[in-house]
Amino acid sequence: MSRQRAALGKSLVVNGYLLPLKNDAAKEGSDTEGDEEDGDDPQFLDLQDMMSVSDGAVSVRSSSVARRFVKINDLDSNRTYKVFGRFHFTDPWWKVAAKIKCIQKKWYLQCTSYSLRSHLANQRKEIFSLFLTACNVHEQHKKQFIETLTEDSNLEFSNLLVTLQRIADKEATQEPNFATSIIAAINSSVAGQYVQYALKFHNLMEILPKLLPRHFLDILMPKEENGRVPRAWHILEKLEHLIQTAVWKLGFSQILSKELQLIGCEASLLAFEEADLMKTIPELQRHALVIYDKLKQTCWSKGHTYVQVDELTALRSSEFSVQSAWESLKFLKDSKIIIIEKRRVYLKCFYNYEKEIASCIKELVNKPPWRISLSEVLTKASTAEQMEGLPENPEHTEEVKLDSYQLKAAIMMCENPVTVISGKGGCGKTTLVSHIFSTVVKNMESADNEELLQACRDLEQDEWAPESWDIPVGKTPNGDSVEEVDVRKVSVLFTAPTGKAASLLKKKTGFNAYTLHQVIWNFWATEKSIASGKPHDWMFSDVQVLIVDEGSLVSVCILSTVLKLLMQHANLKKLIILGDVRQLPSIEPGNLLSDVYSSLNRIRWSIELPTNHRAESQLIIDNAAKIAEMSLKSTYKELQYDAVMHISKSIDVIIPTPDKKFILVSLPSIHNSTGADLQKAIECLLNSKAPGLDDDETSQFIAFRRTDCDLINELCCKKYAGHPIRNHKNKFDFQVGDKVCCSKNGYVRDFTQQSEAQTKSESKEEKRIRLCNGEIFFIAEYKIEQVKNQSFHYLLLDDKDNRQILVNYKSVMKECRLQHAWAKTIHTFQGSEAATVVYVVGSAGRQNWQHIYTAVTRGRQRVYVVTAEDDFIKAVTAKSPHRNTRLRELLQEKIREMEPTSKTAGLLTQQEPCSVLSRLPSTPEVAASAQFDSLMPSVQGVDDSVFYTTNERRKDNGKMDPQEGDSFSADLAFAQDYSWSPQSLEFENRDCEVLKSTTAVHSSSLQTSGGTTSDIPVTMTGEEVASSNKVSTPCGSKRIGNTVEDVKSPQKCSKISLVESPLACKMFRQLALDCSPPRHNLKVKQLFKEGN
């Protein structure tokens, strides 16, 4: 019967005991070394989850147990099945009810439940002996207890502790009492705790492994630094009761968080169906589970943050009606699991993430404006046609050449609280940011040092100060100042979404860069240290500028959490996002970069940098632009290749010369291709020493499909490392010279200067280093160390960037899951770059133009495209799927809410200089830069239609949606009023002749015949730009052309003055104006003094 079911592909349920299996046989068939160890999966906690845990909630980790073979003796058929799967318990005292399925003559586990074995009969002594050994019972005590068991003994696990307690009471006078020792061992051991849970919580052990297999062990006994510890008894009692009365609640994380204080676990609909529990659930909740699962699947597979309600009410029409679906939606809404607005259904978390991002941006805008002096920034920068590239150390650069678009971006960053800069690789985004904020950091440090010195002098002169306030002064070589100690925290925070992107950001800018996850987890570690009685300052509590690189990779949940942390627990004043709006968005729901870019572009707070500053990559950039253009026009236009390699049996392959930069490796068409064509193409590239591929340190293969990566890694391993990728046991083989990467974030011990024995003798608080997902290393050395008859294996990992770490092999496989990395998928390599990139298009499938665009822009100097023509045309002309997101609408609403008022216009006069950044000097050039901002042309970057939602796209007749026009005018008015500052009224008196001459030179560049603004001449310096904007009106005019007639020009204002505080400290200096700000109805942004 079972064979017939297996042949039909149906599942089979077996009930029986686990039989012992040799270790080698048990581990046979495991895919990777990492599967032989339990491993925790990464867990993300947003700010709300962190606060809940701080208030007493429990964070449940998801972990994977080892996959192995076990033998199950089925009690019904008396047959033995060898099953492969993830079993939580494999000891012989467990009885399992396993649902298994036969695939290719092998049995695989689907789900299982556990109970304790009973009726032990003649195996009683053997089983209890094994159990006591697992409980770490002393050998002598175990022997004494086993000897008390007779053949007619009725000892079972259900009465084990009672029997031991009876023996202990009888032998209370004997020392030592072996029964008491055994009881203590059982109560303190992991195996003993699991047995007691099985005796007490029958439903929990039956249902929980089926519904929450990855959380089951952590719910019972969470893993701590010293091993697993018992879960609080009352939590398990509540969970047992919930399973008995309302098992459907396990399918909703919000309910588990509210009722059981369990964070981070939720059963899937598939788990309920495989456990055959759907029929036991009431109809309303059953339908709610179906709708909720569909909502989650749609959001995660398509990147939506909401789904139209009609898509959910029409589900499974044969099972429940539309009315029933609406009732289930109401139930989900009332339970605060989903949110319904305007016929849109949101997952509550993504609804909140987008809302919080918009709120944080609004809060940033409402803060007192902080403007950086553009003149100081430009002291080391001048305008020119092109920029040579990033120097080795930006801090020692005397001159940086900026093009006109970069100058506009610099002004945006100096003036605006939020700036988004988009551009392809090589356009100078990170270089520009690093130079601006290196100046800011230097000013902050000098201001801090001067303030510290002044405070020390004031304190020394205070004769009433107690002696305990005396500051020990160390003489410097000059002998007349106190010793300077750098204890500053991070004030300008450079971040990226991945470890590799953060590493590149640090290399390019010279600043320390962190992943966004590091910012969150550092805060969480701080919170836990405070809760444990060890107060520890958050290292990012002084952050005032947040810079996020590779913004297309950032998810809404990560940015929302980081922004909330910095707004609530730091002093964030500026947000700058860098990226390329054409690249692939995050694999998580949302479309962050495109939404923020398109929203802020309307008020001139976002900009596209179109100029490439890498001469060797110009052809790559040109072809990337063509790919983006094809996506808009939906028409194929052949790319410009400077070499073509035809892979064919009848034609010899011509190897390109080293001067070729964009190379096509043409495979046979789909109809004539075979599975061996790709392998032949890769072997040809590797064996013929194609340009750029002779060194695997500077080259990288990228593919869309995982199977193509596996093939390429196998070929590259033989070519570069000289060995097969797997050993004779079919396990991945890592040897010296292999190129590897981390497939998940993890913390490992660095043994570069210490051995395993020395580490064990140290305190438990050992320092670990973080290895980030995507980081690439080369295995430089494989070491084996013998310590007390134990072998410890180590890998020396070298990232070829002056960083080497020695890690324990077992630890790094468990924590970081090393994989070979000669070839990576496009999603895992996004955010990184290499000198030479080979992109394997493969079968088009769900691939679209963004995949190809992202892949080719990863190459700095040379790109190979390996594809058949049919596959390439299909992929490059495929539209990227539209994502339903709400962030763009929210940002527009927030911007419309911030109507300009007199209070808003005068925020600068009311700003309290409570931060170090507010002490930066302010000059007339800042006001000039504000004028320049108002005259900037609209960004000629990506077509707006790329970013508009369906109901916001331009109509076929070319007219704009009225709502869209109103939004634009309101947003633009707000931007102009926000950029107003009192310094805009003050300019140096210039000779009328100078004004006339300057106007004649630059008026044509600032105003075209069509009335639109154009770019400023590239050869102008920052000061010339400022001066050119001052004279955009004829000499003698008191106001510019857009003034309102019934509004008079304000009176002349004296220059801004600094008022000394009584403490004579710069931190307490305040800006004071000798005149009031303009009235609320003033529509003029710039006013000029009348010439003398």
From TrEMBL:
It comes from the Eukaryota. The keyword Hydrolase does not apply. Residues 239-347 form the DNA helicase B winged helix domain. CDD domains: DEXSc_RecD-like, SF1_C_RecD. The keyword Membrane does not apply. InterPro entries: Coronavir_polyprotein_1ab (IPR050534), P-loop_NTPase (IPR027417), UvrD-like_helicase_C (IPR027785), WHD_HELB (IPR058839). Keywords: ATP-binding, Nucleotide-binding. GO terms for biological process: negative regulation of double-strand break repair via homologous recombination. Residues 820-866 form the UvrD-like helicase C-terminal domain. GO terms for molecular function: ATP binding; single-stranded DNA helicase activity. This is Uncharacterized protein.
